[in-house]
Amino acid sequence: LAKTTQPISMDSYEGQEVNITCSHNNIATNDYITWYQQFPSQGPRFIIQGYKTKVTNEVASLFIPADRKSSTLSLPRVSLSDTAVYYCLVMDSNYQLIWGAGTKLIIKP
Amino acid sequence: DGGITQSPKYLFRKEGQNVTLSCEQNLNHDAMYWYRQDPGQGLRLIYYSQIVNDFQKGDIAEGYSVSREKKESFPLTVTSAQKNPTAFYLCASSTGGGQPQHFGDGTRLSIL
């Protein structure tokens, strides 16, 4: 049975790079690893998705090692508006969705 | 403008009453999902549907029911059998599989 583990919370300062890691075992070998951002009282919003190695878009990068047992979301030069909860989402070997418990990121001035 | 619409934003239920939460999407997505989120907690899957007229139970389906008669609509009924229904309910849709999910703004259900 797949399981995900994320840090419960993290603090950082404006302008810094923030890396959030999600550990996940027994995930589907041929499906994506996805990260979402959620603000209070809103639905989660898609940030980035990858299958292996590194993916970069306009807001983040995602690093996935060859064994796919973890993934790291990297947010460059964070601002106060990046304060939110970040979730990883994977699919297990039975193709069931497995959400991480979320990492509450607090950005300080 | 494409997206997912959940209504109402706030809903109150009396003890022993069934209530139905609406979810409509105009993204032409095949898959739709319902999640429950308790304060300070993550998302738990209630039901999902990969195609019209078909749906599967998620991790916490007891006390809930759904229908998928149209591609655009996936209403969730919280029945009186759900003893602790107070929560934030989120609906999502995607093209299926592990593709990105698009979420609505949620419905907050409270017990009177």
Explain the overall architecture:
The complex is a heterodimer of chains A (109) and B (112). Chain A has strands spanning 3-5, 9-13, 18-25, 33-38, 45-50, 53-56, 61-64, 70-75, 84-91, 97-99, 103-108. With 109 residues, chain A is mostly beta strands. Chain A contains no helices and eleven strands. By secondary structure, chain B is mainly beta. Chain B is built from no helices and eleven strands. In chain B, strands 2, 4, 5, 6, 9, 10 and 11 form a seven-stranded mixed sheet that branches. The model of chain B has no long low-confidence stretch (mean pLDDT 94). Chains A and B meet through strand 5 and strand 9 of A and strand 5, strand 9 and strand 10 of B.
N-to-C span of chain A: 41 Å
Please give the share of residues in helix of chain A.
under 10%
Shape of chain B: globular
Radius of gyration of chain B: 13 Å
Rough outline of chain A: globular
**What kind of assembly state do the chains in view correspond to?**
heterodimer
Which class best fits the helix and strand makeup of chain A?
A: mainly beta
| Tally of DSSP helical segments of chain B | 0
Determine the strand fraction of chain B and express it as a percent band.
over 45%
Could you give a quick summary of the protein structure above?
Chain A contains no helices and 11 strands. Chain A is mostly beta strands. Chain A is globular.
Fold blueprint:
The complex is a heterodimer of chains A (109) and B (112).
Chain A: E1 3-5, E2 9-13, E3 18-25, E4 33-38, E5 45-50, E6 53-56, E7 61-64, E8 70-75, E9 84-91, E10 97-99, E11 103-108
Parallel strand pairs in A: 2-11
Antiparallel strand pairs in A: 1-3, 3-8, 4-5, 4-9, 6-7, 7-8, 9-10, 9-11
Chain B: E1 4-7, E2 10-13, E3 19-25, E4 31-37, E5 43-51, E6 54-57, E7 64-66, E8 76-78, E9 87-94, E10 102-103, E11 107-111
Parallel strand pairs in B: 2-11
Antiparallel strand pairs in B: 1-3, 3-8, 4-5, 4-9, 5-6, 7-8, 9-10, 9-11
